[in-house]
Design a protein that fits this description.
This protein is α/β, with parallel strands linked by helices. Helices cover 45% and strands 17% of the residues. It binds phosphoenolpyruvate (PEP) and magnesium ion. The site of magnesium ion has 5 residues, from helix 31.
């Protein structure tokens, strides 16, 4: 017989905290607390395996379950000296969900199971408290009808209003009619009548009687908790948190203890340290004469646990410390015991029944980024944990919150959401919406804060994107143009908010039935991907010395280097401040997008639209000084550190002039007419530009473009060397598909190198030559590529695009459907697909090393800043990851954690 049930309690405990996979977090910790001798009411956990079998059997319990439940119930009865369904001395139980990792509020709970017409009189007699019994009964009816009879049965409410809402309305009407302020004011007679009316309403609406036998209630509740694993809320939470569907939930059945048995009873929740600041203070809330749900439901303002927890809203209310000092003392002792045992901040739930304290839950408490940092550092200083544990205590993803201004979470709770999209650029920002880059620039110049809202962005929008406080697009994925650029700048950005319908002509925007005009104010939470319709407060999260110290300790464990993707001296400096150890990707084309790039962009266009080699060489020689200067500036900032200079990559049509005015300027410069400009532009257009004339292919067709760029690199280096500096360029060829391309370009590089040495009278310039790995084909022939390449850099944006055959700019239209249907567990442009893209990487690593054992290996796709992908890169043996400046600390921490876990 498969064992599905694990008991816990003062007499017998089967599980422990190590069995989260089988018992869920709640069950495992209840078992652990019971083993520690804490006052845990007896109960049992039904395993997650049972949940999975239940689904395999199409919603039937496995054969032996009922017998196992009966046996375990008998043990609870014996320990409590009560009987489930016993008319004289009835035992009631709670039935709660509990997944492997906490999914707060996403699944269901049913309390007071076992109350029915047979047991009500007995409980009244025993407690001498008729009001309490009918209050417990109405709570059971409300929860059970909602969870078991409606949601689990997938009943769609007729009027859109579920049974629970209907019952809640009946209760609040009663309170209004009779002038009751609080639930506790309702008379016993009214409460009893309300229960009868509830049951009638259930029969009417759900066409079924409320069950009156304890055993039926219990099995119904267990099944409904299992089913809540597949409830709407739970499923969407799992998608967001990447929790596998196959985990299932456990069910915890436990003897009820009551916090609502009068004024010597109470219930509360507490954190062993302050979850918002991390301060080493016992922090919590409690309510006298209440059940647990009342504390979280926000109907009554909860009392502060102690003096430390008093604030402006609750300072007038008695603390537990004041009202029940002895019990508070007992709870404070449990706090120390739990912290010493778990060596981490715990979130606990407790109930006091007639002067006796019971522990109902403990788990590692959720915390803000600031609190996580402070607690980890404090616990290290208190010698509770060692350095490695401290480094692993901080989730790299939350570092974003420490480094960017963020939307005030308190205000966000009450704000109205306009739309949702992908969280492309972190932090928060507010501003007036505008729909074109030109307007963004204009408004910003007039000192207005703007949010640039576009269908999608393209390089022409760059000035407006710079000028805007945040960027919002209706289309595009995590590696679309807007996302890449915004993240590079650390700018708040949401992409792919498909609900936005932009009407450029009328300068307005529709979302469903709502209409917004240019100038209306939005707030964006770029960390979550949510858009709000008014100005929300921001919280500043500036650098703090504790964070620096934390990162310095993390760095001592890290073995992989962290570089940055940067293409301006400013971004390079920002990245250095964040701890970057070089540049892993300098996208040369970006020097034609940024501020003050009008002239170089113009010359680039002139070059692109040249027809003859002479025309093109003339344009290139005009362009040369700009390119050399820009490259030199960044190399100077990154003195002594490696800088990977990538040769021009994007398809040329991205740069062709759009407006009449810029077309005319080019026509004048080339001494041709505007029709000819249009004709030449048309010739550059491609059906599939992403797999068109880009990357190394441009250098094969127009070697003079490559020559100009490489000469610029070497001459900039030569001048820096003569100036006493030590530049370390690495010339990188993009979008290669075979080794002959590398041989072709290498000849140009060697020529330019010799030329520069001669021109400046130098002996040598230290440089490397290598390639990006972006096309599956070259990953498979990496041994041949390594004949020419001294380094590989995995361009996982394109490698993902080409491996999946998903266009990186168009995934917005279908990715959500893939995630919702669990066809993919995550967006592969965000988190590296280890199965296939990862396998191409490890293949390329192996084959590259066969030819060149000391080949330098890095990654410069967006995945270089994604913690899970960084862990993969560590395991694959890469020497560095490269990511946008604001992600450098995230990558540093993820790499340190990977090294610690590896050791
Ligand atoms: C890549 O493809 O991963 C890459 C870094 O290059 P880009 O994003 O510029 O195509
Ligand atoms: Mg690429």
């Amino acid at each position: 017989m498969t064992k599905y049930i694990y008991e816990f309690g003062p007499k017998k405990t089967d599980g422990d905290a190590g069995q989260k996979n089988r018992l869920g977090g709640k069950g495992a910790n209840l078992a652990e607390m019971a083993k520690l001798g804490l006052p845990v009411p007896p109960g049992f956990t039904i395993s997650t395996d049972c949940c999975n079998h239940y689904f395999d059997l199409n919603g039937q319990f496995p054969d032996s379950l009922e017998a196992q439940v009966s046996a375990a119930m008998a043990n609870i009865e014996a320990q409590m000296g009560m009987g489930f369904g016993d008319p004289d001395n009835p035992l009631l139980v709670s039935c709660r969900s509990g997944a492997r990792s906490s999914m707060p509020g996403m699944m269901e709970t049913i309390l007071n199971v076992g109350l029915c017409s047979a047991t009500i009189p007995g409980l009244i007699k025993k407690t001498g408290n008729e009001w309490f019994v009918y209050d417990a009964y109405r709570r059971l009816i409300m929860m059970y009808s909602d969870v078991v009879m409606e949601k689990a049965e997938q009943v769609v409410p007729k009027d859109g209003m579920g049974i629970r809402l209907n019952l809640e309305m009946m209760m609040s009407n009663l309170k209004n009619d009779k002038g009751y302020d609080n639930d506790t004011d309702i008379s016993t007679k009214d409460m009893k009548a309300l229960c009868d009316r509830f049951k009638k309403k259930i029969q009417e609406d759900l066409d079924e009687a409320f069950p009156d036998d304890p055993k039926g209630q219990l099995m119904g509740a267990i099944g409904a908790v299992f089913k809540s694993w597949n409830g709407k809320r739970a499923v969407s939470y799992r998608r967001i948190e990447h929790i596998p569907d196959a985990w299932g939930t456990a069910v915890n059945v436990q003897a009820m203890v009551f916090g609502n048995m009068g004024d010597t009873s109470a219930t509360g929740v507490a954190f062993t340290r302050d979850p918002a600041t991390g301060d080493n203070k016992f922090y919590g809330e409690w309510l006298i004469n209440a059940q647990g749900e009342d504390v979280v439901a926000g109907i009554r303002t909860p009392n502060p646990l102690n003096t430390d927890t008093k604030n402006t809203q609750n300072h007038h209310l008695a603390s537990l410390e004041e009202a029940m000092p002895e019990l508070y003392g007992q709870l404070a002792d449990i706090r120390s015991l739990l912290e010493n045992h778990y060596k981490d901040m715990q979130d606990i739930e407790f109930t006091i029944q007639e002067g006796r304290l019971y522990m109902l839950q403990c788990r590692v408490g959720k915390r803000t980024a600031t609190a996580a940092l402070n607690m980890a550092m404090d616990m290290l200083e208190q010698k509770m944990i060692d350095e490695k544990t401290m480094v692993c205590r901080m989730d790299p993803k939350v570092l974003d919150d420490l480094l960017h201004p963020v939307v005030d979470p308190a205000e966000e709770k009450t704000a109205v959401q306009v739309a949702e999209g992908l969280p492309a650029g972190p932090g928060g920002a507010w501003g007036q919406i505008v729909f074109t880059a030109e307007e963004a620039v204009k408004w910003a110049k007039a000192d207005k804060k703007v949010i640039l809202v576009r269908e999608e962005t393209n390089p022409e929008d760059i000035e407006g994107m710079r000028a805007a406080a945040a960027i919002l697009t209706a289309r595009g994925g995590m590696t679309s143009h807007a996302a890449l650029v915004a993240r590079g700048w650390g700018k708040c950005c949401i992409v792919g908010a498909g609900a936005l319908k932009i009407n450029l002509a009328d300068k307005e925007l529709r979302v469903g039935t709502r209409l917004f005009k240019e100038g209306d104010i939005f707030t964006l939470n770029g960390t979550k991907g949510v858009v709000y319709d008014r100005r929300l407060k921001m919280k500043d999260a500036s650098e703090n010395p504790r964070f620096q110290k934390f990162m310095a300790i993390a760095d001592t464990y890290r073995t992989m280097k962290v570089r940055t993707n940067a293409d301006t001296p400013e971004d390079a400096r920002t990245a250095l401040d964040f701890g970057a150890q070089g540049i892993g990707l300098f996208r040369t084309e970006h020097m034609f997008y940024g501020t003050d790039s009008d002239r170089p962009l113009f010359l680039l266009r002139k070059m692109i639209l040249s027809k003859t080699k002479t025309e093109r060489e003339n344009a290139l020689s005009e362009l040369f000084p700009f390119v050399k200067e820009e490259i030199g500036k960044t190399l100077a900032v990154m003195d002594k550190l490696p800088v990977t200079m990538r040769l021009l990559d994007p398809p040329l049509h991205e740069f062709i002039p759009q407006g009449r005015k810029s077309q005319q300027e080019i026509a004048d410069a080339l001494m041709i007419d505007i029709e000819e400009v249009e004709k030449r532009s048309d010739l550059l257009k491609e059906s599939n530009p992403m797999i068109g004339h880009r990357g190394v292919r441009l250098g094969i067709t127009y070697p003079e473009i490559t020559k100009m760029q490489v000469t610029a690199v070497f001459e900039a280096c030569a001048e820096l060397i003569l100036d006493g500096k030590d530049p370390r360029p690495e010339i990188m060829v993009p979008v290669t598909c075979n080794e002959k391309e590398l041989a072709f370009i290498r000849d140009i590089v060697l020529d330019c190198y010799e030329g520069a040495l001669e021109k400046y009278g130098l002996e040598a310039i230290a440089y490397m030559y290598g390639t990006m790995i972006e096309i599956p084909r070259v990953a498979l022939i990496a041994d041949k590529m390594a004949d020419y390449a001294q380094f590989f850099s995995f361009g996982t944006n394109d490698l993902t695009q080409m491996t999946f055959g998903f266009s990186r700019d168009d995934i917005g239209s279908f990715m959500n459907d893939y995630i919702d249907n669990a066809i993919l567990n995550f967006d592969p442009f965000e988190t590296l697909d280890q199965e296939a893209v990862g396998s191409l990487i490890t293949t390329a690593v192996d084959r590259g090393r066969q030819t060149r054992p000391d080949i330098k290996l890095g990654i410069c796709g967006e995945h270089g800043g994604d913690p899970a992908s960084v862990v993969f890169c560590h395991k694959a043996g890469l020497s560095y990851v490269s990511c946008s400046p604001y992600r450098v600390p995230i990558a540093r921490l993820a790499a340190a954690q990977a090294a610690i876990e590896d050791a």
